[in-house]
Design goal:
Number of domains: 1
Distance between the termini: 30 Å
Number of helices: 6
């Protein structure tokens, strides 16, 4: 009997890889104080130190995406950051296309959280969910 590829597992790994690259680049841009990032945070009315906090949280989330038992936590953290990004763009009255990348990332991250939701539940609850 041939095992073949587990498409869900491979797909999940590829998605986590892409999300990791996106958030490592985003965090790096914040730590490097790229003018685009500095201007964006100023436009939103946030202090400069907040940009570094967001960068650190993005870095933490990217690391958690590869930490056994913490994938859902990392994706959830990054999803919360994306909610903040979408809200910031909307409150700043940016054109509707500006929050779109953050919204797409929010949807992808929500999918990862859902797929790994068993990591967020107490040990016995996972068995109960499968039986229901």
């Amino acid at each position: 009997m041939s095992q073949g590829w587990d498409r869900r597992r491979v797909g999940g790994t590829v998605l986590r890889g892409l999300l990791t690259v996106v958030f490592l680049v985003a965090a790096g841009m914040k730590f490097a104080a790229v003018p685009f990032e500095v201007e964006g945070f100023a436009r939103f009315g946030y202090p400069l130190w907040f940009m570094y906090v967001i960068g650190a949280l993005q870095l933490l989330g990217a690391v958690l995406l590869w930490t056994r038992g913490c994938v859902a936590l990392g994706a959830g953290l990054l999803a919360v950051l994306m909610i903040g990004a979408v809200g910031s763009h909307l409150l700043a009255a940016d054109p509707i296309l500006m929050p779109l990348p953050a919204f797409v990332l929010l949807i992808l991250l929500s999918g990862v959280v859902y797929a790994r939701r068993s990591e967020l539940l107490p040990s016995g609850t996972d068995t109960e969910m499968r039986q229901a």
